[in-house]
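#onboarding

Welcome to the new folks! Below is a worked example of what a typical request in this channel looks like: someone posts a single protein sequence, and someone else replies with the predicted structure as tokens. Don't worry about understanding the tokens yet, we'll cover that in week two.

Example request:
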Amino acid sequence: MRAIALDEYGDADVMTLRELPDPPVGPDTVRIRVRAVGVNPVDHVIRAGYLQGAYPHHFPLIPGWDVAGVVDQVGAAVTRFGVGDEVMAYARKDSVQHGTYAELVSVAERAVAHKPAAMSFAEAGGLPLAGLTALQALGAAHVGPGDVVLVHAAAGGVGHLAVQIARAMGAARVFGTASPGNHDFLRGLGAEPVEYGDDLPKRLADLAGGDGRVDAAVDFHGGDALTQTPALIRHRVRHASVVDSAVREQGGRYVFVRPDGMELESLGALVTTGRLRVHVSRELPLAEAAEAHRLIEQGHVQGKIVLNVD
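Example response:
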């Protein structure tokens, strides 16, 4: 199979397109012929070698944890999928080597979900990691009907999904921090945009009214957002961050996204009913993975960047 791989850590140019052996199919494994791969910030973090202390890494290393495609082969114990099924998965494993920037990838059945017919492969490829991150963070913040919710970095890959999922959970109002150029985008998703900065508490108070505080907050930004947020919410325990585990010292929850096929199925159901859409801002061929990484590293990506695999 063709795959993007690297033999050393470094900048985007260490990744090359090459031929590598096809992945094996274990008893509880689904092998997917890849059609689209979501590109996430963690991908360039791995490429640069910054997660060596968290997972075993092995070269040649294929990056990528998001995938959408068609089932190519299934293991003998697989019961939910068959050859030809259109699927998507958050394909993180216990070690980093056999990622999704490839024509074929093997994924544990428990991490796989059916791709909704209403989604393109590009949209499905951009959903798993970001969608599950948003869903699990909102769950950690106990978001529910009638809540007023604050989403930091609301126009990004995770944030724009969190806005929509919060509304689907019954949130009465969703405020989203973003730069002014993204405010119309957020309004189109059902959020009330607010510009981030030192005067965020005042801006939020002007929008929210009352005591200016929200019921729950999810942080996909870090930095000052982590330190400012406790004063903006009514109960500190309803603050979840996926960026900085220091949130626990403030009484909140740190979330590291887990693969979960059933939760991914629930996100697919939201897509089918029109309550969730994945905004794909850019599609690139697999061979241009380095350019995709450069775009992600520059920041300010609206929604998702996706690699198409022909």
